[in-house]
Design brief:
The protein has 396 residues and is mainly beta. It contains 1 helix and 28 strands.
Length: 396
């Protein structure tokens, strides 16, 4: 008991120290403030948005976040959508262009408004952003070396200004991971394009390359009726209205949840074993997470840093429960090796990789956690999004 008390006091002291280091600054990125974006973690490209490039090991609340309704943490960039659809972003932009601001000269260390762009949904991959407009079309910018911008050809340079993803209309949902993009039409049809690692495109592709730059119906996925959809770029996850979970792509560490591992391509979604009642899925790296309707969280796949939360570092080929959480309302699996959850009381919990002073877990410490632990100093949180090793949270 004494050790636990000392540990709690240490965390509280570290949080207070970091809080006192936060210097107020004016940031009119989203106009007046009625919501707050919090962030922490690795910050070399400015993805935390605190005006620096130093790791932020405890939560930083971005001043004047404004009327923000949605957030997205990409691998090294951050994004927010205002209530009126205005896009704000910050982080990696130098040489990549995924901030869609027409330049690739410097990284952006504080939130900026991207003029002329209004969006309803965002999805980010490896130095690439795609976004959905209210007219059902999909646009994007950034890297296109695997055809992840859906132009029908690849480019060995970044596209700095938004381009329309070809051949898509009536789109209601988008997803991206790595260099692979997905779009779901209003009739449930799934389209895919970009990199095809382990058959993650969900269809056969012709030619000598392991990518396809043309958005095409993922006929092996079909019209599955997914209510939640996520991809890491090497595997995909989807949950249905009946609570079942389906997975496809790579399975080298059991991320497909079928009780085995292999090095085969899995184009056709297979049902994940021993789990039901799922309302949300999240694919990150080679790890899979699922949130059930009863508020419990389960994971499978890579567990090298404890990111499954089952008090071990053993990879799992079928779902295991993450700690004792029973009131989860949202989950996010990082592209790296961390897992995050928002609970019904507005608190944030995380587990997984926390080393080398990266700040991934937001607790000010420098070691991993293989069971969920609370992130101090946060309450009233409604949404969370995890990037490579940085996190965004939204307080409405």
């Amino acid at each position: 008991m004494l050790a636990k008390i000392k540990h709690s006091l240490l965390l509280a002291t570290i949080f207070l120290f970091n809080f006192l280091l936060i210097l107020p600054s004016e940031n009119p990125a989203f106009a007046s403030a009625n919501s707050i974006i919090g962030s922490w973690g690795y910050n070399a490209q400015g993805q935390v948005g605190d005006g620096t490039f130093y790791p932020r090991t405890t939560p930083y609340m971005i001043p004047n976040s404004g009327h923000v309704s949605s957030i997205l943490a990409g691998p090294a960039s951050s994004y927010g959508i205002a209530d009126n659809g205005t896009l704000g972003d910050w982080g990696q932009d130098s040489s990549t262009g995924q901030l869609c601001d027409g330049q690739q000269l410097v990284n952006i260390y504080s939130p900026q408004v991207v003029s002329g762009i209004t969006v309803t949904q965002l999805a980010a991959g490896n130095a690439t952003l795609i976004y959905l407009k209210s007219d059902g079309t999909v646009w994007g910018c950034g890297r296109d070396d695997y055809g992840q911008l859906g132009q029908g050809v690849t480019h060995n340079y970044s596209l700095l200004n938004p381009v329309q993803v070809q051949g898509l209309s009536s789109i209601v949902h988008i997803a991206m991971g790595g260099s692979t993009g997905f779009a779901v039409k209003s009739d449930g049809t799934v389209y895919s394009w970009g990199s095809d690692a382990c058959g993650v495109l969900g269809r056969y592709i012709s030619g000598p390359f392991d990518y396809d730059p043309t958005p095409t119906v993922a006929d092996q996925i079909g019209t599955p009726g997914f209510t939640s959809f996520s991809t890491s770029g090497s595997h995909g996850l989807g949950s249905k209205s009946d609570g079942s979970v389906w997975a496809w792509g790579c399975n080298n560490v059991g991320q497909l949840g079928n009780g085995s591992t292999d090095s085969n391509d899995h184009l056709v979604p297979g049902q994940v074993s021993n789990i039901g009642g799922v309302t949300q899925v999240s694919a990150g790296g080679t790890t899979s997470l699922a949130l059930k309707s009863d508020g419990t969280i389960y994971g499978w796949g890579n567990n090298a840093y404890g990111q499954l939360g089952d008090n071990s570092t053993t990879n799992r080929t079928t779902p295991v429960r993450a700690g004792t959480i029973s009131t989860g309302v949202e989950i996010s699996a990082a592209d790296g090796s961390d897992s995050y959850a928002v609970l019904s009381d507005g608190t944030v919990w995380d587990w997984g990789y926390g080393g080398y002073f990266t700040g991934c877990l937001g607790n000010g410490l420098n070691y991993d956690f293989n069971t969920p632990q609370q992130v101090f100093g946060l309450s009233g949180i409604s949404h969370i999004s995890a990037g490579g090793c940085h996190v965004l949270v939204l307080h409405l």
